[in-house]
Structures are given as structure tokens and as C-alpha cells.
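Bench notes, afternoon.
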Amino acid sequence: MLTVHHLGKSQSERIVWLCEELGIPYELKCYTRDAVTVLAPADYKALHEIGAAPVITDGELTLAESGAVVDYIIARYGDGRLALTSGHPDFAHYLYWFHFANGTLQAQLGRNMILNRLNLPADNPMLLATKARVDRSFDLIDARVRASRYLAGDEFTAADIMTGFSLTTMRYFMPYDLDRCPNIRDYLGRIAARPAYRRAMEKGDPGMALLLT
């Protein structure tokens, strides 16, 4: 049985959402962050050597890392759904945005979050440079979802699942004003309308306000 080990307010929400979109059977085990450190509890950290979300178990397999987990589930259980193949005209877009999520966007947000917590002067060059990179990333996404309904094109794919966390729940940790990105707000409205997304968030983080605007 595929088991998704979900840490509240974390990137593992991607995996719950993926399973709901695919409509596959899975077991969901939820873990609560430490009340003092706001980090994963000891029993979650013990699941995998990296000690971070997401983690899945599937029989004897234990697997971490969002992109790897998403690829694994799609390949093993997806029957070709939510991923584009090399013959699809939007294949390159799918690859780019799938990897942009953690390779660029999430990394920049994480770096910006840490720098902001250092209480650096507002004119600190590193802080300004990092914020500018985040702005460029949001501008790039805003332009993309102005031109197409979803990130890979008109078809919803795993690239949208990978990116959704950074545009929504991550803003609990690194606030970002979406007023400057009206097309992202419209895009998140399309995400919010997906029943699988709503089910996933209610199962994984019941009662949490969804940062969709």
C-alpha cells in the first residue's frame, strides 16, 4: 500500500494532491510540527535520512524528495496521466516548469525567508538581490499563466502540482503580495476550483486557510 507521510504545512501537500488528482488508493498519515521549533517531529525525521517532507513508503520502498516522489507515483500508478511525453508539443514547457518549482522558485523563497529572519538592514545588497530574483520568478510565472491556462499549456499537469505549494502555503513562511501578479491570482482561482485540490487540502491540513489570493 502506498502511504503518504504528510507533515502539516509542507511540500508533502503536493503528494496528497497528486494522489487525489489520480484517484489512486493510498494511506495518509499526518504529522504535526513541533510547537516550539515549528520543525518536523522526531518520528517524521526518522522516516528518511534527509529528515524532511515529503516522504512516501510503498511496500519496502521509502522515498523522499518532491520531484522524485511525483515522478515515481506517476510512473507506477498514473497510467500516463498528469505528465507529458516527448511527443507532446508542450513537453519542453512541462519539463521546464516541473523543475522550475524546486530548482528555482522554492529555493529562492527559502533563501529569502532565511535572509529576512536575520533582521538585515533593508538596503542590504544580498537581501535586495534575493528579493529581486523572487520578483523575477513571480513575474515569469505571471506572464506564463497569462499566455496559457496552466504552466505546461492548456492541460493541467504535475508541473502545476509542483508549483502550487510555493505560490500558496509557502506564503505562510515567506509572505508575498500577489496584487502585483493578477494572472497568478487568476491561475490560483483555477487551482482552487479543482475538487481534488480541495479534497487534498482538507485531508492534509483541515481547517487551514488556503492562501489563494
